[in-house]
Amino acid sequence: MIYSIGLKSITAAHLKLVTKTLDIHLLVDCRNNPAAPRGFSRELLSRSYGTQYIYAGRGRLGSRGVGVTKEALEWLRKQDAGPKPLLLMCVPEAPGDDHRHHRIAIPLLERYGIDVSHIYRNQLLLASECQAAILGNRQYAFTNFSIPAEN
């Protein structure tokens, strides 16, 4: 299972709760600039999550430069076959506004049948539903899920 999340409107504590609730084993940072503030710099994420965090932005899963590579999509396909889920991270909160939907989730769906679950606030949105809503100019059909409150 592959999830995606935007870091723009969440806290580091909220991210920790999401990873625990969804039993995430790997956080994959696909931002072009991993030096963002508010507790989400590459260094802080690496210290907080250790080997559970990898930076795969520029040159692999980023939106600039070479963009998302075929090799990176194939790597995600192999990770999806594993026993525990991973979490793609970028900045924009709404998945339909981000490359993690258009350049990662949709190619995974079209090539491999992998339907990424986007996390938007306390809701899940399948990439297939997000794309259908975008193309049909209609509202998204979300699935609510419960994340424990931050302490």
Tags for this entry?
single chain; 151 residues; alpha/beta; Protein-Tyrosine Phosphatase, Chain A; 7-stranded mixed beta sheet; 5 helices; 7 strands; 18% strand; globular
Write the H/E string, N to C. Answer: EHEHEHEHEEHE
Proportion of residues in β-strands: 15-25%
Structural Rg: 14 Å
Shape: globular
Domain unit count: 1
Task: Calculate the mean pLDDT score and round it.
Answer: 88
CATH C-level class:
Alpha Beta
Overall helicity:
25-40%
Topology, number of strands: 7
Would you give an account of this structure?
The longest helix has 14 residues, at 99-112. This protein starts with a strand and ends in a 7-residue tail after the last strand. It has helices at residues 12-21, 42-49, 70-80, 99-112, 127-136; strands at 2-6, 26-29, 53-55, 86-90, 117-120, 123-126, 143-144. It is globular and about 40 Å long. The chain is built from five helices and seven strands; from the N terminus they run E-H-E-H-E-H-E-H-E-E-H-E. Helix content is 35%, strand content 18%. It has a single domain, classed as Alpha-Beta Complex (Protein-Tyrosine Phosphatase, Chain A). With 151 residues, the protein is α/β, with parallel strands linked by helices. A seven-stranded mixed β-sheet has the order 3-2-4-1-5-6-7, sandwiched between helices. Strand 5 and strand 6 form a beta hairpin.
